[in-house]
Design a protein that fits this description.
By secondary structure, the protein is mainly alpha-helical. It has one domain. It is globular and about 35 Å long. A two-stranded antiparallel ribbon has the order 1-2. Helix 1 runs antiparallel to helix 2 and helix 4 crosses helix 5. It has 5 helices and 2 strands. About 20% of the residues are buried.
Length: about 120
């Protein structure tokens, strides 16, 4: 899987992820309050595929996975009032009951939603 033309197992992936998250953070800060949730939801939908890669999970460094999970949870809190996609709605609902979600919980919720559609 590529993020800005950088493959996950490459040594450049953590830096590419950091740059992407920095741009998202800057973008969200620059938006009017009503539009912040829209970009946050797009960020969640961009990050989730990296967390649901069960067969390739060894490729993702533990520290990178920690950043992915923390970022996903942060953006889910911003989305909580107005989720649009089925994936975001399911993740928001799950996080309401449990607080911060782990990578495994995110994978299970997304897998459940994908299995329904």
């Amino acid at each position: 899987m590529l993020l800005f033309a950088v493959d996950v197992p490459s040594a450049e992936f953590p830096a590419a992820l950091g740059a992407a998250l920095s741009k998202i953070k800057t973008g969200i800060a620059a938006l009017p309050e009503k539009q912040k949730a829209v970009l946050a939801e797009k960020a969640v939908l961009m990050l989730v595929p990296y967390l649901i890669r069960k067969s390739d999970s060894a490729e993702i460094d533990e520290d990178v996975q920690t950043v992915l999970v923390a970022s996903t949870n942060r953006y889910l809190r911003m989305v909580s009032m107005t989720p649009k996609s089925r994936v975001s709605k399911a993740l928001v609902e799950e996080s309401r009951g449990k607080g911060k979600l782990s990578a495994e919980q995110i994978s299970e919720v997304v897998g459940s939603v994908k299995g329904q559609g």
